Amino acid sequence: EVWIGGYRVPIETLTVVDPADGGQPGRLIVLLLDDTTLPPGLIPRVKEIARHFVDRVGPRDEMAVVGLNGDAMELTGDRNQLLRRVETIGLMQATGVQRLDDIGAHVLKTVTVLSRELVERPGGRKAIVGIGPASLFDTPIPNPIVGRDLRPEWTEAMRATASAGTHFYVIDPGGVGTLPAFSGASGFARETGGHTFLNTNDFKGAADRILEEASNHYVITVADP
User: Fold this and answer.
1) What DSSP string describes 85-137?
2) For residue 113, which of 149, 76, 83, 68 has the smallest C-alpha distance?
3) For residue range 45-79, what is the model confidence (pLDDT) as tens digits?
4) Buried b (16+ CB within 10 A) or exposed e, 93-115
5) Beta carbons of 54 and 79 less than 8 angstroms apart
6) What is the pTM of this model?
7) Phi, psi (5° rounding) for residue 143?
8) Fewest CB atoms less than 10 Å from the CB: which of 7, 69, 188, 198?
């Protein structure tokens, strides 16, 4: 059943996408790497996670590697080009004190921009994978006493991901025992239909699950409500 605005609307078509069908379009994956707030010691781990995604690029897939510093999104299926892009990611020197609300707003706006660029891209399942702190990517809205209200930016990012049919995932490179109790069950990634992987050292397993989910999906069309 599909409900829009409190009304159940008829389903007109249902198409199950079979990844084994050679005629189906490939996946569109954008890796969003935190190159602004991570400790320098975690940058190699971020690159390792990104390289595993690149190694799994299929013949019909396209992928882009961007940083939080405002890089342009360049989708390609060329693994060598993607690996070179991963190696260029480095920790940028922060100027002054970074306010939590400013950083959170930047993350949400970046996801909005990337999602809007994906709207017009032909292809199969679309996903944006944030590789960085879950406290930044999955909970970008700080406590109200810390900064301004970022609900407008949150809402705009949610609309953009929904319009593009894009799911947002987060892989926290900190590993086991580096984070306070936080489940990720109600964060930004979950709201888009994605998932947050944290307090785990199985980064390859997290990447494989994301790619597997991006390989299987269905498309429905409904009547105009």
Assistant:
1) HHHH--PPPP-SPPPHHHHHHHHHHHHHHHHHHHHT--SS-EEEEEES-HHHH
2) 68
3) 999 999 999 999 988 899 999 998 877 899 999 99
4) eeeeeeebbebbbbbbbbbbbbb
5) yes
6) 0.87
7) -55, 140
8) 7
